[in-house]
C-alpha cells in the first residue's frame, strides 16, 4: 500500500471482528517496527506477543477489559527498558569495527554509552549528572537529559513509541487495524510479563480486522486546525 | 512510495547536500504527522519550523552544532506540552456532539480529561492521585499513570514521538531524509521558542537530501537479532 494511503487509512479501532490474523502479517509488522530510528541505536525495546489464552485473559483484564483489548485477535505489549543497552552493546561495537566506523562512533559505544546509561544506586549518579549538566550548561550548550533513571526510561519509551508507530502503520498496510492503548494497569502487566525496573510496559497494541461500516470507531477522525499546531518562526 | 519500501529506505542521515526542500514537501509531512494516533486525541503537540536564519543558527548551536543540524536544509522542533489539552477540548466536545458520539465519550472530554490532566500546585494533586491509584490498584486493575506533571509530560512526549515517526517516514516517501536528534540543550531550545513548563522540546528533526554513496551515514544499518526482541508468550 502507498505510504500516504496507509497514513490516511490507519485509525484506532475500538472493536474488531472475529477474524484471525495470519502470524506472518504480525511478523512483517514487527520487522517494520524494529527498523524505526531509536536513541543511539541501542534498541532498548521488547515486544511481548501474548498468545497463551490464560495470559491473554489476564492482559485483557489489566487493560480494564476495554473492547479494543477484549475483541483483539492479537495483543502485543511494547516494553521500554533502558537497561537493555547492555544487550546491544557488544553487537554494536563489533559492527562499528566491521564497517570501520569513525573512531568517535566506536568510542561512543565503548565508553560514552555505559556512562550515559548509568544512574547509580538510588539515582545517586543520575542526580550528580543532572547538577553537572546544568552547571556546564550555564556556559555552553549541554544536553540536560538523560541523567536520572526516569530520564532514561523516558528516552526508551520515546524510542519504543517510534517502533510502535511503524508497527501500527504496517498492520494497516496489510489490511488490518490496531488500537494503541495506554489505559492499562502497568503494575499488573509488569507482573504478568515478569518485568523488573527500570523496564516498563509503555503501550499495549490490540489488532484485528475492523468492523464494517465504521462500527469500530465512535465517529470520523477529528484534528484541530493545523495552523494552531504548526508554527513557522 | 510503497509503505514497506519507505520503512526500508528511511535512515537517520548525519550529513545532507545543499539542496533545498520545496515547502510543500515539508507541509505534506506535517499533514501526515498530525494524523498519528495520540493519547486521548488531545493533540498535545506543537511543531516549530525554524526558518529565520538567526533563530536557526541558535538552534544549530543548541544541537551542539552536530552535522545533522548544521547541514540540514530545514529544522523542526517537536514540542510536547500536556497543558495543550485545553486548546483541543472545546473542539473535541463540539465534534462528539456533531457526530453524536456515545455519552461515555462525550463525558470523557467534558469531565474526565480535565481531571486526568490536572496535577495541582507543586504536583500536589498529582501525588494524591498517584497514592489513590495505587490504593485502588490493590483491589482491581487501575491505570497508575498519568498522575504527576512528569507522567503527563511523558504521555505527551510519547504521542509527539508517534507524530514524529509519521513525519520522518513521509519525508522519505517524498525522496528526502531526516535525522531525529535528542542530543540538544533543552533549556536553550525552550528559551529560543519561548516555551513554558510543562512544555518541553522532545526532538529536533533535521532534514534534507541525503549525500550520495552512503556518505551521509557512517555505515549500514545494524539491528540486533529479532529473536532477542520479540517474545511470544
Write up this protein.
With 233 residues, chain A is an alpha+beta fold. Chain A folds into two domains: 3-82 and 153-229, NADH Oxidase (3-Layer(aba) Sandwich), CATH 3.40.109; 85-149, no CATH class. Chain A is built from ten helices and five strands. Chain A has a four-stranded antiparallel beta sheet with strand order 1-2-4-3, with helices on both faces. Chains A and B meet through helix 1, helix 2, strand 1, helix 3 and helix 5 of A and helix 1, helix 2, strand 1, helix 3 and helix 5 of B. Strand 1 of chain A pairs parallel with strand 5 of chain B.
Q: Separation of termini of chain A?
A: 35 Å
Helix share of residues of chain A?
40-55%
Q: Find the CATH superfamily of the largest domain in chain A.
A: NADH Oxidase
The share of residues in extended strands of chain A comes to 5-15%
Largest protein interface, residues of each chain = A-B, 91 and 91 residues
| Main sheet properties of chain A | 4 strands, antiparallel
CATH class type of the largest domain in chain A: Alpha Beta
Mean pLDDT of chain A: 97
State the oligomer. Answer: homodimer
CATH topology of the largest domain in chain A: NADH Oxidase
